[in-house]
Design brief:
The structure holds 2 protein chains of 2 kinds.
Chain A: E1 2-3, H1 5-13, E2 20-27, E3 43-51, E4 54-58, E5 68-71, E6 75-79, E7 87-92, E8 100-103, H2 107-118, H3 122-148, H4 213-238
Antiparallel strand pairs in A: 2-3, 2-8, 3-4, 4-5, 6-7, 7-8
Chain B: E1 2-3, H1 5-12, E2 18-25, E3 34-41, E4 44-49, E5 57-60, E6 64-68, E7 73-78, E8 81-89, H2 93-104, H3 108-126
Antiparallel strand pairs in B: 2-3, 2-8, 3-4, 4-5, 6-7, 7-8
Classes of the chains: A alpha+beta, B alpha+beta.
């Protein structure tokens, strides 16, 4: 299968910031295992760069081209009971798929990598964006509601938030679970949406499917500009 | 550059955000429009011969430009090689616009910008950082103002 490799390599090395980067030792995978052949496991130190759902690795930090890429969509990241300390593995659902075993320099580095990689999928990012989109919509509605109701004077203006009790604080929802892994086509074909999310997002002015950024930004920008003015005026009144 | 082709092929079999049979031309000398099954899955665009299960190819949709060309036609090019265009001829202007909109939003980078935007707006309105509950508020990739677009 062809891939636009030149563009992919360019994305890897261009100056868009990486989500995570660092040295890791990568276990060398042997393709054949002879029952009676004892071979030592070996590792290669590589410079790894995470951008979005793509994990690139380079021979050296200064290398101009990656030697490899791991597309992370649908993977799981697990701590590894390898002989090595600070080892973790990237695995895929596919029965015959190999795992990528990686070794970090220390506990903190390992934890940072596992955390970053677990949340690297496009699916997860999309989940979070949709959640925030809903929260913004709710916050706007609360704002509109509280404008109509009589306002009590705020006692403490130190915190930058609306002290009006009519404004609902963000609901303390538990964080959504990581989305179910995309299963390989051999098992279930459709990934079920995470609980609490409707499968089809209704069209709304705030939905990225319908609005373009600049429209959205100015739409909310006006609300927020008005809100800020009101807040500032209250501050002036409250603090001589 | 090595890559996990097996996982990419598996991704190509996943339910698509969008799929259609579209005439496609690759940026190669002498290439002509050919009917392809074009399938958008996360930030990859896969293209298949219409009767085959395995894709001919995949395009990673990061740092790409989606351009409206003539009627019913749009193109995908990449910022480091803007003249090399993958051309797509749709059945209708409507289908063409739908694909342009879908592809513009199909990158991880676009979603990241959306997230930063929503986070910023929510924070301004409520004073609370909505990412705190996810335990990811400190991650560099979600910070405001530190990213070059």
């Amino acid at each position: 299968m062809k891939l636009n490799e030149r563009s992919v390599a360019h994305y890897a090395t261009c100056d868009s910031p990486a989500d995570h980067a660092g040295f890791l030792r990568k276990r060398v995978e042997r393709h054949h295992h002879h029952a009676h052949h004892h071979h030592a496991t070996s590792y290669q130190r590589r410079w790894f760069v995470l951008k979005g759902n793509l994990l690139f690795y380079f021979e050296e930090r200064e290398s101009r081209e990656p030697v490899g890429l791991v597309v992370l969509e649908g993977c799981t990241v697990e701590l590894c009971e390898a002989a090595e300390e600070f080892a973790f593995a990237i695995r895929f659902d596919d029965a015959g798929a190999r795992a990528y075993v990686l070794v970090a320099d220390g506990q903190a580095a390992m934890e940072a990598w596992v955390k970053a990689l677990s949340r690297a999928s496009f699916d997860y990012m999309r989940l979070v964006v949709r959640e925030l989109e809903k929260q913004l919509e709710e916050a706007c509605k609360s704002l509109a509601a509280c404008r109509k109701s009589p306002r009590r004077s705020s006692s403490s203006g130190r915190k930058r938030h609306l002290s009006n009790p009519a404004l609902l604080p963000l609901q303390e929802k538990p964080p959504p679970p990581l989305p179910p892994r995309r299963r390989s086509a051999a098992s279930s074909a459709t990934g079920s949406p995470a609980p609490g999310l409707s499968p089809a997002m209704p069209e709304s002015p705030v939905s990225p499917e319908t609005a373009c950024f600049s429209k959205l930004h100015s739409w909310y920008g006006q609300e927020i500009a008005a809100l800020r003015r009101e807040w500032q005026e209250r501050q002036k009144r409250g603090h001589p | 550059m090595r890559y996990n082709e097996r996982e990419l092929l598996s991704l190509a079999r996943q339910p698509a955000e969008k799929a259609a049979e579209i005439l496609m031309r690759v940026p190669k000398k002498g290439s002509v429009l050919k009917k392809r099954l074009v399938k958008l899955v996360v930030n990859f665009l896969f293209y298949f011969r219409t009767d085959e299960a395995e894709p001919i190819g995949a395009l990673l949709l990061e740092h790409c430009r989606i351009t409206k060309e003539e009627e019913n036609v749009f193109s995908i090019s990449f910022i480091e090689e803007p003249e090399r265009k993958y051309c797509f001829e749709c059945d209708s202007e409507e289908q063409c616009q739908e694909w342009i909109e879908a592809l513009k939003r199909a990158s991880y980078e676009f979603m990241r910008r959306s997230l930063i935007f929503y986070r910023n707006e929510i924070q301004k309105m409520t004073g609370k950082d909505p990412l705190e509950q996810y335990g990811i508020s400190e991650e560099a990739r979600f910070q405001l103002g530190t990213r070059k677009q």
